[in-house]
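Deliverable D4.2, example record:
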Amino acid sequence: MTTAIQRATGTAVQRATDTAVQRAGATAQLPATAEQERAASSSAHDLEITPVTETGQPGGEARRLEDATAGRQAAVDDVAEAKTKVSDASRARADAAADVWTWSGTAAEARKKETAARGRAQELEGEVGAAERGQRESLEEAQEFTGRANAATERQRGSLEAATRHGGTEEQKGAAAREAREQAAGFTREAEAAEKRRKAAEDLVAVLSTTIADARRSQAEAEERVRRFTRQAEEAAAELKAADEAARTAGAAEDKAQEQAAEAEVEAESEEQFAQSMRKRTVELAQALKGAKGAREEAQEKGEEAEGAGASRAKAEEEQEEAARLRDEADRSARESADLAEKLDREAKAATEAREAAEQAAAGHERDAKAAHAEAEQARAQAAGYAKTAGDKRTERDAALARATEHGQEAAEARQRAAVAAQGQLGQGATESTARTELAAAKETKKKAAEEKAAEEKAAGKKAAEKKAAEAAAKTGESSRNGAARAADGAGHAVKKASAKTKPWADVPDTAALRATAPPGGVYSAEAAKHGDSGTVRANVIQQNVENPINLISDATGTVNDIATIKEAAGKRHESGPASHGHRKNWVGKPLGLATNSQMAANDVLKIANTSTKTAGDVAGVAALGDAGGALTISFSALVAARDTVVIKNTHAQRKELKEHFRGVAAKRDRKLQDVLNDLGTETTGLAQASSSLGNAPDGPDPKALEEIEKRRTRIDGLRTELLEHMASAREYVVHKKKWKLGHRFVNLTGNVARMAAGGVAIAAATGAVTGGIAVGVAGGLTAGALGGLAAKKGVKKANKRYISVRQPDRYARTTLAQEGTEEAKEPETSEAPRMSKDGTSRRGRRRDAWKEALMVSHPVKQGKRQLRAQEIYAVAAGPAVPVGKDVPDDIRRDARDFLKALKCGPEHHNQKPEEWEASLNDPDQQKDWEEAIAKQLASL
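Output generated by the structure prediction step:
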């Protein structure tokens, strides 16, 4: 099985071993040659310049000078050779240190994997034993369950036979019971039929009895009606008779009625009513007679019907008695058959219960057999599973043992490589130390040779001066010309120096005039001219006579500085190295500054001329001069605005790129960077010493040595994290400066746009298109507010830096090693040396001296936060030959160099090839140049 470590061992690791590790190992293991021993023992003597004593022969002086020159050249060559040795040895040491870190980590990781694999193999061995035990136990259980299943099958067979016997008895008794039940059912049906006949006869008797009763009751009712109708007929006959009597009595009185005619009419109605009543009674009588006749007939008929029903009822009673007798006989026979059937049912039920019990016993035995068979199958399946598991675990155990062996081999190989690399690192470290000693001696010899050369040149110069003084008369014209050239060069240098010193001081009143006094003065002057206030206008003219020369001095010195910078950049823009980037940058950017400053200076001249006209008496000024001044204002403001637009775009993109470096690392600076680097160097050397013995132990590595290596690696890992945190802190500083630069440029762009509007308003005011001061005041206020606020912020920030440089001189003190042979940045001169603070951690200067230094606008800050960040960035990016960067791990060094490229300090910006760029980072003599170049780039952020 091929693992990732094996593949790495066969590829990148082998290549690495073929490069730096082999070189380092060869250097450490091979004895020094005679030539190397001679160079190491006599290098200091070889670099000494042996003075040559002049002889009396002709040409002795020339030979002495040639010998001195050759000695100085030899010293220079010795220094170059020693630097090359230091560079090669440091590179080999750094490569070997990287290999030690890589291979010791690989060995530790492989050892962990080997230990884990062997532990896993032991676990799998236990699991294999457990699986085999489970297999045996499962097979034994399968045999036991198979025996149980066979016994249950036998018991099932006996239960089935018993069930068959009881089933025959159950069928016989059941058939007899069914026959008895059929007989009982037949008797029951006969009894039911007899009962039905009895009930029918009984019902008939009841019906006939009811008929007889109804007939007798109807007869009695008919006789009652006959009697009632007879009484009604008698009553009607009597009433009719009485009516006849009353009618005769009325006839007798008819005569009297005629006499009483009036009364007859009244009684006529009563008679009519009486007649009607009589007629009604006659009808009722007839009906009563008729009803009596019908009732008599009905009574006679009902009597006859009652006599016939009586005969039928007697016959029905006889049939009822016969049916009751038959019913009793059938019931008795049915009870006997039912008793027989019940007895047979009990016997059949007993047989059924016995059969069912036998069947249940057989089913139970069958279930037991099936369950036993199932458990036996399950046990056999478990046994097969245990067997498979045991096989799989054996395979996995064998694989784990193979991996353990493989990791062991990888660990042994990695330990061997780490040991070789460690020996190479230690050997190259010793070689590097020797080379550095030789380099120091060569530099000392070179220094002495340089001092001797300086003394000789001084003496030769003195002689040449005396010789030239003797020949002065013969070369008067030529000397005059050379003197004029020197005078011109001296004057130019003096102007350049004076301009550079004057510019910072002139900027303070210039900013105050442009941003504080000029805008409101212009508004007041315009308002006064509008209202004819000549006094205010003249006062403003006096103010301008003071402001304009200040502006001209500032802009003129800026123009001179730009010209000097462009001139210098023109001669050095094709150079290469850290310092060359600034010259090319100035060659591209300063012409725009020159154009801006020259236009501003020209505008100042126009303002001075226009003010002079106003001072002479013409308070309105010259319109042409106002137009030209406004046009120049628009021109240089447009140039600056265009530049700011491009800068804002590029700054945003660069800030976005810079944020990606060291992403995910906390920005912290808990200790000085040099302390971290020193500890890292100590631990790296300790790791090499601990790893150097890994390949010598025949019985494997010493556990104590491995433990020591683990401790060293843990500490180194923590120091690497600290180093990355310092770089993340530098990234946060750069990103923060980019953020503020975006804000500054945006404000500057806004102010220049407002200043362009102010220039347009000035032109309009000069031509008379605008007579009031409101528009001018608004434009001037916007310009002053934007540009003045930005200038004030920058001024306060610079003053604060100068204040801190005196008040807290150790706040941004260097935290890394400086270049050898260079002086530390001088602190500002003060009336009293800084004193140590009460807690003894830092020095503090006098507050009075700090305020004095804050007001010295021409004093640059030699060692501030920006310089400190530049020094720390360089320390991490520098090559191993540089003392400050010799202990930086290669991968972190590469990340720091990528960060340098993002800061525009890469090879393309230094006019170098990548190899030359890396060589410059590995050159100790270029440390100061690099730190200054990085600081300038941070300043341009």
